Please model this.
Amino acid sequence: QVQLLESGGGLVQPGGSLRLSCAASTRFRSINAMGWFRQAPGNQREMVATITSGGSTNYTDSVKGRFTVSRDITQNTVYLQMNSLTPEDTAVYYCNANVRNVWTGRSDDYWGQGTQVTVSS
Model:
C-alpha cells in the first residue's frame, strides 16, 4: 500500500509564494518519479512539475522560472516551491508518485488527496 500525505496549500495574494510538501509511505516498493498535478474548476488535470529518481525535472511551460520541484530521497518527500503566484495558478494540487513493486516489477501511479491553492487579493 502506498499513501501520499500532502501539506502546504492555502490562500496567498498575487505575487506571493507557497511551498507544497508530499510525503510518500511505501513498503516493498521503489519510487520511479514523483510530481505535482493541478486541476482548476472546469479544467482537466494537468501536469505541473515532476522529478525522477535520477533527479531529472520537467515543468509545464506556464510555471517555468516560477516553480521549483525538489525531493528528499531519504524521506520519500517531494516539494513544490511556488513563487510569483498568479490567480491563474488557483487550483487543487495533487501529489503523484509512480511506484514500482519490487516483488512483481509492476509500476503504478498513486495520488494524494489534493490540497487547495488559492491566489487572490
